[in-house]
Write a structure and sequence with these properties.
This protein is α+β, with helices and mostly antiparallel strands and 284 residues long. Helices cover 49% and strands 14% of the residues. Helix 1 crosses helix 5, helix 2 packs across helix 4 and helix 5 packs across helix 10. The two termini are 34 Å apart.
Length: 284
């Protein structure tokens, strides 16, 4: 889509990645363990809790199981893994240096996820999220929003011809649907919905916010996307946010803040030395 919205900046923060993993079920589940035995292997039980852990880890593979055979596939997978694991121990594979490192990594990963998950579950409660929303709402200052349509074309001459058609009484939405090269808004008559300053590229934004309601640009507006003809249909004050609309964003921000603080505190209390040149962590 070539609608002239700004690009958002990606923030490469490890704790943000951790938050995604921790909230998507990859951390240890805190649901009560289901100890119902579904099978045994050499006398050792396989429970539904065991199946749930394997299902979370190998979901992509299990998706290939025949309909109605998912649980049977899970049981088979647990049996296969346990048999292979026991055989590996018998052959001494678990003591090989490379395997020891991988086992240690698996242990660290599990404890890392569970430690941080417990921290943010304690901190990011519904009450805490609501209090943060109420604080944001109290500080909310509505900005002006406009609802605009635009027609995007490749050349200034094409845009000037469209403006001439509008001067002759042509319908803006019909022209957009017929001539706009923006495949997203073009299909809806050029409608971009409501937006405020900062949502669009600057040349487009500057021209749009100068227009009064019901007016269109008398000269083509150039941006990196091409040439625009812009019509402003409505102007209003930004409506206040709602808890339902903001709760998920606030929750994710609070999770990232909590994880960031926990990791920073742990690192601050540790002695860390980076031996390899050029690999010291970046600082802001």
């Amino acid at each position: 889509m070539i609608t002239p919205h700004r690009h958002t900046r990606l923030v490469p923060v490890l704790v943000a990645i951790a938050a995604i993993h921790l909230t998507s079920g990859q951390a240890v589940s805190q649901e009560p363990a289901n100890d119902t035995v579904v099978a045994t292997l050499n006398g050792d039980p396989i429970t539904r809790a065991d199946l749930a852990l394997v299902a979370a880890e190998f979901g992509d593979q299990l998706a290939q199981a025949a309909p109605g055979r998912e649980e049977a596939a899970l049981i088979d997978l647990v049996i296969n893994m346990r048999l292979a694991s026991e055989a590996a121990v018998t052959e001494g594979i678990e003591s090989e240096p490379a395997v020891v490192r991988r086992l240690n990594l698996a242990r660290d990963r599990t404890l890392y996820s569970e430690y941080l998950r417990k921290k943010f579950i304690a901190a990011v409660t519904e009450d805490a999220v609501r209090k943060r929303f109420e604080k944001e709402l109290a500080a909310f200052e509505p900005k002006t929003e406009i609802r605009a349509r635009h027609i995007l074309v490749a050349s200034e001459a094409e845009a000037e011809a469209i403006i001439a058609d509008l001067e002759g009484g042509a319908d803006f939405a019909a022209l957009a649907a017929d001539q706009s090269q923006d495949p997203g808004s073009g299909r809806s008559g050029g409608d971009l919905g409501f937006f405020k300053r900062g949502a669009m590229v600057k040349p487009f934004e500057d021209a749009a916010f100068k227009l009064k309601r019901g007016k269109y640009t008398k000269k083509p507006v150039q941006s990196d996307f091409g040439w625009h003809v812009i019509l402003v249909e409505e102007r209003r004050k930004e409506p206040p946010p709602t808890f339902a609309g903001e709760a998920q964003r606030i929750q994710q921000e609070m999770i990232r803040d909590t994880l960031d603080a926990e990791i920073e505190a742990l690192r601050a209390a540790a002695t860390i030395e980076i031996a390899a040149p050029g690999l010291a962590p970046a600082t802001d």
